[in-house]
Amino acid sequence: MMLAALNAFAQERGLADDPLYEHRPVDFLIRVSAKGKFQGLESTQDERGKGVSMLIPRIPQRAVNIAAGFLADNSKYVLGYEEAPAPRTGKAGKGAVRFEAFLKLVREAVSELNVPELRAVELFLASDASREQALAERAKEEWTGSEMLAFVVGDSLEPVHLLPEVRDWWEKRGAEEAAQGRMGLCLVTGKTGVLAETHPKLKNVPEAQRAGAALVSFNARAFESQGFEQGDNAPISRQAALGYVLALNDLLRKSEDRRYRQGIQVGDDSVLVFWTNSTAKEECALLSWLDPSEVDLRRYLEAPFRGLEPSALDTRRFYSVTLAGNSGRVAVRDWFQTSVGEVKQNLRRYFADLRLGAGPAEKPTPVWRLLKAVEAPSGRGLSPDVSTRMLGAALRGQPFPRQLLSAALDRLQLPPSDDKFEREQLRLRVALIKATLIRLPRSGTASLEVSVSLDKTNSSQPYVLGRLFAVLERLQGAAQGDINATIRDRYFGAASRSPMTVFPRLLQLSVHHVSKAESERKGSGKRLERIKGEVMALLDSKVFPRIFFLEEQGLFAVGYYHQREDLFAKHAPSESMSSDDEPSDDTE
């Protein structure tokens, strides 16, 4: 089903219209005379060093094997460039072997065609001096071996590989090769065709080989069965194999402002890509909300929720696959399909669940930034399983994994900093806790009330005690000012897990903090003492709970954050104090 959807995407977007040609950036054009003399190396690169995109004969699949392109390839094949000199073993180095493979294909075409431009290219390639002259056009350290090169002859502007006679020959040769091979029923299309022995490789998958890695491969006996070898273990036609790989490579390729054109980084070794059978505009709108770039965030300020409004295309299909690299292979971590409208609805709910505070809705937060906020202090991220399930849950509208709640709570126990970055990190962690708690009731867990901002009517004991902890922390700050270790640094973790062991001691300390705050900052202690009384009035009894389970610890954290932000906020006089209170400067 997944490969069929990818192949259909490639057909709909025209990615597989021409299996013999592809668009690639060409960095330099080698201009030669009609007699094959080198005339110049012409750069097509822009100010960012990127070559102009050009239609060239498709580069064959290769890893450690030698396989040359036709009339266009990198400098290792076209000019025989090598970073290091070949070892003195009497054998030709890899650069020479690559060049011979490139020249052999050109000579094959020359032997069957009477095209002067093609003959000129052969004469150039046959001359060691001409090739050395071309290499000398750039400093030795400037060559990398990855530069894409093509040929033009004389004063012509059209590359040799795009001349009509040359194209006709290449297409005829490709058709003859395509007809060779074992015929069979394709598992993807359900039609009879020439079966692929091996499949093309995927590029730009995290943790996979730079040269590419295979999604479907049988490169060891352990992967084979019933005596079948290579692609016979999963018969897929060459056309379908090329189609699904072209589709994934198109989704995975880099764009100007993203690492993946239509993919979202999930952890260190995974990427989620998605596509639809609606329009590219719909896909772009979904991506800009789920994983916004800086450009998307600036656009959001001008038009909030652009692209998420209902449309006639909401009934179209939405597909998503999460891929992970492992050396030369690619694994599928997750795959699902639904409708575009369902994904839009789930995204709205995702943003609503993450919303925190009484102000206007926040800008969309990239998924990687949320996950980064709860990774371990050592920099080690969440396990791929947790991050994959979290992103999949956002798209499906399902509960987040409970491990995410545990990770966020662990990060809350670290001493906070007063800088803006740490406050933002705290907001992201509590937002993730809130969203995880909200989704738990929908998976059969006991209901937990979680509001967007401070809820003074919520009498849930974990929420109330979280509020109380924030008031006690603020009382200490009003009394003692900046100190090395606050009660948050020392007691937050224990208070959220085992209130009975911590709160009696904190309440005793708060008596001294109130009196000192009154003497140091007039009115501050009285106001905070009044809020403390209001909060404690919501407690069921004077006996604190012995233990809070994970979900209750999460609710404690939300209550703490809500009350903390409310105390920091600048209240109007009628809201912040009664008529007999003195004005307070206890704001931020």
Automatic annotation (TrEMBL):
InterPro entries: CRISPR-assoc_prot_Csd1-typ (IPR010144). It holds the Pfam family Cas_Csd1. It comes from the Bacteria. This is CRISPR-associated RAMP Csd1 family protein.
